[in-house]
Amino acid sequence: MPNLEHPAYPAATLLRLESLVPCRESQVSMLLSIFGERQQFSIPSIFIYGHTSSGKTYVMQTLLNTLQLPHVFVNCVEYFTSRLLLEEILIQLQSCSSETEQTSHVPCDNFNDFVRLFKQAVVSRELQDQTLYIVLDRAEQLREMEANILPAFLRLQELTDRNVTVVLLSEIVWELFRQNTGCFEPLTLYFPDYSIAGHLQKILSQNHPPEYSPDFYAAYINILLGVFYMVCRDLKELQHLAALNFSKYCEPVVKGEANERDTRKLWKNIEPHLKKAMQTVYLREISSSQWERLQHDDGEPGQLKGLSAHAHVELPYYSKFLLIAAYLASYNPVRTDKRFFLKHHGKIRKTNFMKKHEKTSNHLLGPKPFPLDRLLAILYSIVDNRVAPTANIFSQITSLVTLQLLSVVGHNDQLDGPRYKCTVSLDFIRAIAR
Amino acid sequence: QQIQEDLNKQLFDNLVSFLRRSHSEFQEKTTEWTCRMKSREIPTAALVLGVNVTDHDLTFRSLSEVLQNNITPYIALLEAKDCPGIKNLIQKLMGQLMNCYIDVDSLEDEDHVQVSQNRIRCSMTSIISWYQNVRKKTDSETPSKKRTSSSRHWQSPPVVVIFKDMESFTTKVLQDFIVISSQHIHELPLVLIFGIATSPMIIHSLLPHSVSSLLCIELFQSLSSKEHLSTIIDKLLLTAQFPFKLGEKVLQVLINIFLYHDFSVQNFIKGFQLCIVEHFYSQPLSVLCCPLADAKKRVNSLSHDQCENIRRLPSFRRYVENQVSEKQILLLTADDFLKEITQKLLEDLHVYHENYVSVLRCLHVFTSSLPKYPLGKQIRELHCVCLENQVWETEEYESSLQLARMLNKSDLVTMLQQCVEIFVSSSGKEFDKTVEKLKEFLTQFQELEAEAFQEQDGSISTQKELQKKTDLYHLQKTLLELKESRRSKKLTKFEMLRFEVVDYIDSLVRTYLVPADQKTLHEIVYFNTASVLRGHLNAAPRVALHTALNNPYCYLKNQALKSDGGNISNKAPDICIVYKLHLECGRLINLVDWLEAFATVVTAAEGPNADAASSDQVDDIIHARFIRAVSELELLGFIKPSKQKTDHVARLTWGGC
């Protein structure tokens, strides 16, 4: 592992930085060398990508904060229109150097205005001699804004003629951003996953609670990783799980049944518990606060049912039949209707065979759209007693659509002959038909 | 009509209090959560409400009201149709939050500036800054002003965002909103509430794991609407306090609509209200349908015409016919005497209702635990059966009595205890004896238990004797004796008592559960015209259109249009003729043929000579009429121009295949 060293910054700061970003030393030193010294012009744009929770945002934030570089940090999901985004950058810029003065709101509608205002802001805040960093988190959202936003950001240095570097953070690769020619190619930098278990172990055990020794916590993390590593390598999720289950792990120690060194005993205590957590909390079947409550009173888990336990849906009588009819209409071809739903057709044996054969293939193909009339015709044939086509029935169809059990195919404004699709699964229909 | 308003109010009070109860638990949870906001998770409540979407509005309204009173002034109700994009969502959210802030503190001038400013910039940061402003203000104000409403909330009240219909939101909007708000959860204590109509699985299907892991979801199941309905029926129909009653058929219609169509309690209540209106509108004697004390007063002030109305009631006639002849004459001629009798009868009716309800509940206790539920699981089904005809004559009643005779002792005892409770709590005066009788039964059962112990001892001793006997003959003899004694024993002790109990219940049923339409003056309080109600509630647009076009007399009430079945009269409106002609055609209709047929029908009455004389001239007018009728049909959606053949139109209604 290379130690961080850079002539422009004091060694103590670098050391602190290094301790804050474990397992990312090489990337940080790379970034540092790109950044250069404060007054030096840097590369116009950098593109950093990597999988979820590989520390992109965190590294950038700690890097800029510890070195006290002037920067603007914006999340593109939060500022969902280009106007909001640009205004937010300007506001942050105005406040980043002088906190005392409450700046007035400046409207900024397009990129042209932005460049102008940006120049003014940089001049007025005396930032000409330093590199300004604009970090755009979740940069993939930029693609959905106006077409000029992304190329303009990439060439911001050129456009404004100021010392500015734009850093884009994203989870997807640069190739998916490239839309047309003439786009400035940024320097791409890849953050690999914390793939090795050692990395995760190291990061997770870093923030151990003060009451317990680091070794004790590290042992706990080791056990936790042993259970969850197979299903989850997401650092955030693992942190969350570690925080949730630690009190349970400490229980024997608190009670005095085991000391901190007695790893084996502790393991026996925690392992079934963690397995249970994997089935429930990890899938968000039950919420973490419920989980904590469960730990406190040590109650039986059968009492608390998860989200999926309430899968049963109660429907009115005709709605059930409507849904079944819709399902039949979606998955049976039209030509079999006559055979299935008319009483006198004669060829029963053949029909049964055909039905079985077609069902399997149709389920692989997915639901097909069907017209309203066919749905009603099937409904009349599967309901025993006579059904009047009242307004209630029609309104039920629309309410099924709003419940997302059916979906309208085609345009909404097409009044004659609307077509529907059944979107529920066979299991759901089975449960209803019972 | 005044009573009706009263009733509505009471009804909604009922409903709201009911909802409150179901949500009280939920509020406690919210308070608990907001205290523990340490991680990045947004506390979220998933409220499973069932498919009766029409009721949800009321539920949410009362929920937000309750929340506003107890927890936080900051509530935003979001609907999917208002939020097609994240921008609209945040705009809407801000608007609602700002408005409710104005409500709380009424510092309008300052807020207007703020709002107009924020109209330019709608984003989460402005919400946060707004929230911090508000909190600063309230912190400084509360000690000086001592506002009760704001002191009830705590220092940092959470902002509650309610998503009314989770299913209809687009996934992207929800995801973005959750991601954004999770980043600001430390600055803005946010609580989300998802209203879910189907099943909580929808959360997983709408949100990917990376987003749903930002939520701390807790599930709350509201009562199913079926239970809701039964409580409402319990409180409204099965009490003697509400003078208005529903007849059997009407109740059946309402319940059918509920069960078959929409599960909507709201619609049920609307239907009930419609019944009330219809009853007061159509029945002249409904003035007497009010609490007993008022009714007596009103009887005294009845006019002669109204007395005649009473005499005309079929149930009253029946009553008169059973009287002695002198009394008959008095009843039919003297108004004062009639009023006296009417008062008495009304009182009888009231007492009957009181008794009816408690006996019905008692019977329900018995029948609801029987296997296969011959008389229905719910008390409303039993109520329907009892209203329809004499319960004890139905087969189901027979079979349920049979089953009741086979109940085991512990069940029987608990049922009897329940019955005693019901009778004690009921207001009827005649039930003292019944209670005594039932208690007597209970004590008898207890005695029986004590006896049973002794008998067991006895049987053990006989068995011991049996073991002593070695002689085969003697053994056989004693065994036979034992068998016989056992058979007789069973019949004598427990079973006898059981029969007695069941017979007693039977007698209660026979005396008190007489169907209401056998009671005199039942017309005053019972609404029984189900057909009217069905016509109003079960709209059938297609049928209505068909009858209107096929048989215009039905709506126009013109004597000339009174046709007799198949043939098409030329006096009918043009559109009717065109419609009838088009019924005879196939899927594609040739316009020329159609016009020809139309012309023949229209000119049929004018005689052959007129037709022959000016065929060209008349044709123009008829042509225009025809075109107009056809375009009217197209407007109604019966036909549309077809692309296959130019001079043809496609038929859209059924039967054209």
UniProtKB/TrEMBL annotation, chain A:
Its main location: nucleus. It comes from the Eukaryota. Residues 315-434 form the Origin recognition complex subunit 5 C-terminal domain. One of its GO terms (biological process) is DNA replication initiation. InterPro entries: AAA_16, ORC5, ORC5_C, ORC5_lid, P-loop_NTPase. Residues 21-167 form the Orc1-like AAA ATPase domain. Keywords: ATP-binding, DNA replication, Nucleotide-binding, Nucleus. It is found in: Nucleus. One of its GO terms (cellular component) is nuclear origin of replication recognition complex. Gene3D superfamilies: P-loop containing nucleotide triphosphate hydrolases. Residues 217-284 form the ORC5 lid domain. Pfam families: AAA_16 (PF13191), ORC5_C (PF14630), ORC5_lid (PF21639). One of its GO terms (molecular function) is DNA replication origin binding. Belongs to the ORC5 family. Component of the origin recognition complex (ORC) that binds origins of replication. DNA-binding is ATP-dependent. The specific DNA sequences that define origins of replication have not been identified yet. ORC is required to assemble the pre-replication complex necessary to initiate DNA replication. Component of ORC, a complex composed of at least 6 subunits: ORC1, ORC2, ORC3, ORC4, ORC5 and ORC6. ORC is regulated in a cell-cycle dependent manner. It is sequentially assembled at the exit from anaphase of mitosis and disassembled as cells enter S phase. This is Origin recognition complex subunit 5.
Automatic annotation (TrEMBL), chain B:
Residues 1-288 form the Origin recognition complex subunit 3 N-terminal domain. Residues 299-530 form the Origin recognition complex subunit 3 insertion domain. Residues 542-654 form the Origin recognition complex subunit 3 winged helix C-terminal domain. Its main location: nucleus. Keywords: DNA replication, DNA-binding, Nucleus, Phosphoprotein. Pfam families: ORC3_ins, ORC3_N, WHD_ORC. One of its GO terms (biological process) is DNA replication initiation. It comes from the Eukaryota. One of its GO terms (cellular component) is nuclear origin of replication recognition complex. Belongs to the ORC3 family. PANTHER family: ORIGIN RECOGNITION COMPLEX SUBUNIT 3. This is Origin recognition complex subunit 3. The gene is Orc3.
